[in-house]
Amino acid sequence: MKQLLTSLTALLLVSGGCTPEEEPEATIRIDLARRGADIPTSMYGIFFEEINHAGDGGLYAELIQNRGFEDSSVPEGYTVKGDRIFPPADRTNHLTGARPHPDLSFRWNPDPIPAWRFEQLEGSGASAELTREYPLNEASPTALKVTLPEKGRIALSNCGFWGMNIEKGKGYYLRMNTSNGNRFEGRAILKLVAEDGTELCNRPLAIDPDRTWCEYTGQLTATGSDPHARFVIELEGTGTLLLDYVSLFPETFRNRINGLRNDIAQTLEALHPAFVRWPGGCIVEGIDLSNRIEWKKTIGDPKNRPGIYDTWGYRATMGFGYHEFLQFCEDIGAAGMFVCNAGIGCQGRVGDACREEDLDAFIQDALDAIDYALGDGTTEWSRKRVENGHPEPFPLQYVEIGNENWGPVYEKRYDRFYRAIKAKYPRLTLISTLGLGGQHRHERVDMIDPHWYVAPEFFLSSSRLFDQQERGGYAVYVGEYAVNQQVGGGNLLGALAEAAFLSGMERNSDLVKMASYAPLLENVNDRVWPTNLICFDSHRVMGRSSYHVQKMYAENRPDYNTATEFEQPRNGVQVSGRIGLGGWNTDNEYRELKVTLPDGRVIEADMERGWTPKGGTWSAADGTLSQEGPGVMRWSIWDSPEEFSDCSISVKARKKSGDEGFILYFGMQGETGYVLNIGGWSNQTTAFQHMVGTDMPQIPNNIAQQVETGRWYDIRIDIHGDSFTYSLDGKRMLEARIEQSRQYVVSGYDETTGEEVIKFVNATEKPFTARIELAGAESVGRTGKAIVLTSGDPSDENSLDNPEKVVPEERVYKGFSDRFTYTFDPWSFTVLRIKVQK
Ligand code: AHR
């Protein structure tokens, strides 16, 4: 952690500048007098979800794994077979009516008592087994029953979450419950033991002879250190003893009871998050609805919290519950974002939904959560907050209604939640889980929440995606995004692509008001998601290069954008390849496909022969080519006698049935090429797209358009180099140009420091020299800062063993003026901070 916080401290002198012989390849013109959109303080936040042991074994400081002996409790209605758990088979998906696929299952730890080890040290016949004969409480029905039929000695040890980080001289706070039903007679010793067997603490404990449950609390002080230590209970004697809720905490962030691991919380705090989102993510919805997070079961004494079999394949205590999340927000000066369940189970899993008549209970549950956070202490749920030690309201500001829900049921349900919550809490911002364009599907919406998990190419070619989005009456919260494909465990290239995409968000901050990278945390011993922002084990924390991009954006958020033009020679990309036709979950007919070449030659396709279907079922008769399912991607490529570059493509098309409109492919080389998607995105929008396998980022510029069923349309695409024009029925509809540049810039003014802040991404292997002109400045300070994130190779990644491989470096730069030349490092993200008087 120390390393992380000090990574910016090295102050180097000038490098990264420009030597006189370097000719600028581009000009960046910034006009300080032309003020763009304000960049809201809400912009950069964090998204927490219990995934990859982000909470248990991560941010939540508890050291004991399976403290309540509930990790092997099977959720009601679920079935375990070996190391898989299956959801209830009788649920139905609320959109399709389908039952869960029989193979839909999740990992299950088949160990009967996970994380605990039992060993007989002396004597024989001793045993340890789970029992429900005498429950500690409703939340923790299972206990561990240890029996020593004859005089002997046993050891019960808990390994923590892949080892416990025990540090010499530090105190560890213990809570342990026992019930002495069958008169265990003997003595108990509590120990902390290093991996090599060295005792780091040894403390006797007198066992209460009482049958009723009795709780021991106290402090264990370590006499040595080991990051892979374990906690051991030794019992010597005879009889039977029940054990439950065995908990051990180190010092926590801000010394909170039931608190957070210091180093991880500090790493999050260092991001200066404007908001924290909780509890997710898919776990909001659950594998099916019965498995959703219920916030009321996550507050109060953690001993009384049942926990949950987590969507991500392990049991979670929910120790980092609703109260702790709000407390954390308050502690780090962030606003809270609570995500409530909209009466719908995860649509990527079972996708069941509660009955309409039961929805009021879900709405009330959300209102109760808000009351808990914001009520004045006299209302039902805010009284509980006071009882839980927090008289003042918490800084809850946002409520997202559901997570990744869509479809007509959700659209209407959102409206019901919106009306009920706004009536009581008009100042809260309410977020819909629908993506871009979703604002039209509700009565009213404050924000929509599109998500992107992509390969680098998508973000590198989509930095202008928000420039073209419709404005008015709604804002965008990019709630989850990350490059998590083709970047190993998360490398510099991925981080640069994110920085490029973020430049588009920041430039469009009149529309995009908030963003949170996801997922946030990963215990490296349990990575269930390909890339995560911050990685840790029992004692180390490391921010990936993406973490540093987030931090650089948050720390260098100007107050408002300044007009920026980036003039670059074009690289002369020439589209070339084959042509195809198709539809997305839509059945179409096509006829009269013709290609007109620049020399006037016309090549006409035979619609009945010479096609290679790639998806769906294709048939042809009377010069008409038709498609239908199965599968959503229904497309076929024309085996034309030649590949086409500059040309005009024309075709007649008619929609027979389905969700969307027409898809035309061109410049196709295998599964890479370009697409004109007419009436895509639920028959709402038309755009050109770049197709790279299954990734299909939009090429900026799109239009709202709907395709009618049963009508013949005349479609035409004109291709000229890197530019495309789409015409429909003789009318020019849309023009687009491929974004070839791998350099990105955004700039703004920081009123507090009087600095112009220029962020620049160079996602190429060569240095990039630009002339930078600052208009509208009275004076420009010569000396300023360049904060540079770079590394020798775009595939470079940080690791716990090498956490500083890709970290930002702060350089003093002495060559700023109202016209200066700067050379950006290869594979770099740079922030220039220039003192400017306006
Ligand atoms: O961030 C991981 C998961 O990705 C989230 O739980 C879900 O909302 C999305 O599909």
List keywords for this structure.
838 residues, globular, binds alpha-L-arabinofuranose, 12% helix, mainly beta, 11-stranded mixed sheet, TIM Barrel, 8-stranded parallel β-barrel, Immunoglobulin-like, single chain, Jelly Rolls
SSE layout:
Blueprint: H1 2-5, E1 11-13, E2 26-38, E3 44-47, E4 79-81, E5 84-86, E6 106-107, E7 116-122, E8 127-131, E9 143-158, E10 164-166, E11 171-193, E12 199-205, E13 214-221, E14 226-249, H2 262-269, E15 275-278, E16 308-310, E17 314-316, H3 322-332, E18 335-340, H4 359-374, H5 380-387, E19 396-401, H6 408-424, E20 429-432, E21 447-448, E22 451-454, H7 456-460, E23 475-478, E24 480-483, H8 492-507, E25 512-517, E26 521-523, E27 534-536, E28 541-543, H9 545-555, E29 560-567, E30 578-584, E31 586-596, E32 602-604, E33 611-615, E34 617-621, E35 624-628, E36 633-638, E37 647-658, E38 662-669, E39 672-679, H10 680-683, E40 685-692, E41 698-704, E42 712-720, E43 723-728, E44 731-737, E45 743-750, E46 755-762, E47 768-775, E48 779-780, E49 784-790, E50 809-813, E51 819-824, E52 828-837
Parallel strand pairs: 1-50, 2-47, 3-15, 3-25, 15-18, 18-19, 19-20, 20-21, 21-23, 22-24, 23-25, 26-27
Antiparallel strand pairs: 2-29, 4-5, 5-6, 7-9, 8-9, 9-14, 10-14, 11-12, 11-13, 11-14, 16-17, 27-28, 29-45, 30-36, 30-38, 31-32, 31-35, 31-37, 33-36, 34-35, 37-42, 38-39, 39-40, 40-41, 42-43, 43-44, 45-46, 46-52, 47-51, 48-52, 49-50, 49-52
Helix pairs in contact: 4-5, 4-6, 8-9
The protein binds alpha-L-arabinofuranose (AHR).
